[in-house]
Design a protein that fits this description.
heterodimer, A: 311 residues, mainly alpha, 12 helices, B: alpha+beta, 2 domains, three-stranded antiparallel sheet, 8 strands
């Protein structure tokens, strides 16, 4: 029975279905806020759902010369990985049993969608997609280092040091949120910047760059396969802020007024991400790599050092 | 090993169909080929089958953005044949509309540059600021685009004096918005990092390729038809030719942004000094002869040559839009740059293909390969075939 419960957790709540619905709603918030910044009206709330439904109904075209299995399976792997991350995060927040090192698992699984996109794009045998894939690869190499350092800043700050999400949440419940410490504020800034790249949002939408390489990594996807790609992006937009709230900002409180507070925290992070997206042009891949390995990594290391000396 | 990266014929960033092949090694562009010719419309041949008066309407439709430029250049060519000069009021009115056109064309480019850089906010804001200029054009001429306003000898309709305060208000507002945009764009380190030092066209190359307009002025070539070959009311108002020495994408952007300020200055002075009197010098008939008209369109010099054989139709109407000379400069510019910058470098000349399209007639024996009649016949046959199929 326990295993059936886990399967339900993964498929319905808080896994795939729940994450997909909230993710698409979040995407609507993103589109609406962007529209207001740009003096437009913006779409109605159900627009992202309509987009996905329409895509599912369309034909899937597999390009000539593409590796069929890799091309179609890669997006599914990405989708599954985001679903698992969401399940693990929510179960930890709802007081469920974590497992030793689930934080490591989350970091690992958050990289899977990027890798899946690289595999899918490479399998499509399109020159623009391969340019996109190589850019995505460089981007992953660039942001992963500061991202991991920033996350381990939070781990260092928790005493006793733990790699369990529920351990980190317990510590925050007892001693106040981690975001109250200077070191964790720095780490938080770093992870927000890396989130921008993980979501491939401007200024780091380099692998997709529609005006340069026409959606690059996604160029050959169509129909339901494209829907899966878009859906896992939307779910990522939901999962990353939840991860940051869990790690730095006291976790999700799901009772009484806490629900409202949780939603406010969530929307603040989303708004920051959307505003960064709308006030910057796209950078070049070499500039992005230099940015992440230079200033951002230095910032992350400063945060880490502060955490070690106890700030 | 070099891979070919295609841009076009249909590409999200380019409104018109054209095809660029980038020969790339990794992300570095080694060489490029540009293949035009997908929207050739046969304007020059059409112009020979219409009367002089109709021709002005026809050349307006060469380009939606430069419609004032082409019709003014054609009017100047006809006036050159006849040997008349338009009355003062017409010269000033023409100048006002032409500079309004420059405002909206440059603002459109600023928006497009934002779009190419993935900076959607600049795209939307630029186009929002452009909108009142179109309203001003509608107030003066009756149309947002294709003004049907220029005429050999003057302008077609007079303007009531009541509208000028409103126009001045729009221009003041636009001036302020331009200042804001200049600040926002030139102070943003991320934008600067994308534009500075990218796609450099040296002064020698600019002269060698015969570049025109902002493209040439961004490379330090000090040319501007408005000053060099005085027409309209430009010699009677105070303005500057903007020249930047660097030749990169930033320099061209700065030229365009500052030219908008200059255009605002010109419009304000023209409205202030606008004389009264007639708006057109009547042209009764057009004698045998040839005439040339060239003006500074937003993208560079627009050139029209008309030869008349004494009938009411031109014997030859040759037109050359500035993009024709600016496009080849893409090649020296893009060499050694990355794919990310290629589209930006291509768009920095503000290309306009349908104005530029030419058709090559190739036949080894020297006989015409295909005449206009043959093409029309071909088109009819194709339409008939399609109709039978569906």
């Amino acid at each position: 029975m326990a295993s059936l419960g886990l399967v339900l957790n993964f498929l319905v709540f808080p896994g795939l279905l729940f994450t997909a619905v909230i993710g698409l709603l979040t995407q609507w918030v993103d589109r609406k806020v962007s529209a207001r910044v740009q003096w437009r009206v913006g779409p109605p709330w159900f627009q992202p759902f309509a987009d996905i439904l329409k895509l599912i109904g369309k034909e899937i075209i597999i390009p000539e010369g593409a590796r069929r299995t890799g091309f179609l399976l890669a997006p599914m792997a990405g989708l599954a990985a985001v679903g698992v991350v969401s399940t693990v995060l929510w179960l930890a927040n709802m007081g469920g049993d974590g497992f030793v090192g689930d934080l490591i698992g989350v970091i690992y699984l958050l990289t899977i969608p990027s890798l899946a996109i690289i595999i899918g794009a490479s399998a499509s045998s399109n020159p623009l997609a391969s340019v996109g894939a190589s850019r995505e690869m460089k981007l992953v190499l660039a942001y992963e280092l500061p991202f991991v350092i920033a996350i381990f800043t939070a781990v260092t700050k928790v005493s006793p040091m733990t790699l369990r999400l529920d351990g980190i949440l317990d510590y925050q419940a007892a001693n106040g949120v981690l975001l109250g410490n200077p070191s964790c504020i720095i780490a938080f800034i770093v992870v927000i910047l890396c989130a921008q790249a993980k979501l491939t949002y401007t200024p780091f939408d380099i692998p997709e760059a529609e005006t340069e390489i026409m959606d690059g990594t996604h160029i050959e996807y169509s129909g339901a396969a494209l829907a899966v790609v878009k859906l896992s992006q939307a779910m990522m937009l939901f999962t990353l802020p939840v991860f940051f709230i869990t790690l730095f900002w006291g976790g999700l409180v799901l009772t009484g007024w806490g629900i409202l507070y949780t939603i406010v925290k969530y929307l603040i992070i989303i708004t920051i991400i959307v505003l960064i997206k709308n006030t910057n042009p796209r950078v070049r891949i070499d500039q992005a790599v230099r940015f992440f390995w230079g200033p951002v990594t230095v910032l992350a290391i400063i945060g880490m050092v502060l955490a070690i000396v106890g700030l | 090993m070099s891979t070919i990266i295609p841009i076009g014929p249909f590409h999200p960033v380019l409104e018109e169909p054209e095809y660029i092949q980038l020969y790339v090694n990794g992300e570095t562009v080694e060489s490029a080929d540009i293949d035009l010719g997908r929207i050739h419309r046969g304007m020059e041949l059409l112009a020979q089958e219409k009367t002089f008066d109709q021709d002005i309407f026809l050349v307006e439709r060469i380009c939606g953005i430069c419609s004032a430029s082409h019709s003014w250049a054609a009017s100047l060519a006809i006036e050159d044949i006849v040997g008349v000069t338009p009355p003062d009021r017409a010269r000033y009115l023409r100048t006002i509309v032409h500079e309004l056109e420059r405002l909206h064309s440059h603002m459109l480019w600023v928006g497009l540059a934002g779009h190419i850089l993935g900076y959607w906010t600049v795209f939307m804001w630029g186009w929002k600021y452009r909108e009142p200029v179109l309203d001003a054009l509608e107030m003066i001429t009756g149309n947002r685009q294709h003004y049907a306003w220029y005429k050999a000898g003057g302008v077609r309709r007079d303007v009531a004096d009541e509208i000028w305060p409103e126009i001045l208000k729009i221009i003041d507002e636009f001036d302020k918005n331009t200042d804001m945009l200049i600040g926002a764009i030139l102070d943003d380190p991320v934008i600067l990092s994308r534009l500075k030092g990218v796609g450099i066209l040296t002064k020698e190359d600019a002269i060698h390729y015969g570049c025109l307009g902002p493209t040439a002025r961004g490379s330090g070539v000090d040319i501007d038809v408005r000053r060099d070959d005085d027409y309209g009311a430009y010699s009677e108002v105070d303005w500057d030719v903007i020249v930047q020495p660097d030749g990169d994408c930033l320099a061209v952007s700065v030229v365009r942004l500052l030219e908008m300020k200059e255009a605002c200055k010109i419009i304000k002075q023209c409205i202030e000094k606008l004389p009264g009197g007639p708006i057109v010098t009547e042209i009764r008939d057009i004698p045998r002869g040839e005439g040339v008209g060239h003006i500074e369109a937003p993208r560079g010099e627009s050139f029209h040559y008309i030869r008349s054989n004494g009938t009411n139709m031109p014997e030859r109407h040759k037109m050359r839009a500035p993009t024709f000379l600016n496009i080849p400069s893409f090649r020296p510019r893009v060499k050694g740059e990355t794919i990310s910058d290629a589209v930006l470098i291509f768009a920095v000349i503000d290309p306009c293909y349908s104005c530029t399209e030419r058709m090559a007639v190739l036949d080894p024996s020297g006989k015409p390969f295909m005449t206009g009649q043959d093409l029309i016949k071909l088109s009819h046959e194709k339409t008939e075939k399609l109709r039978r199929e569906f």
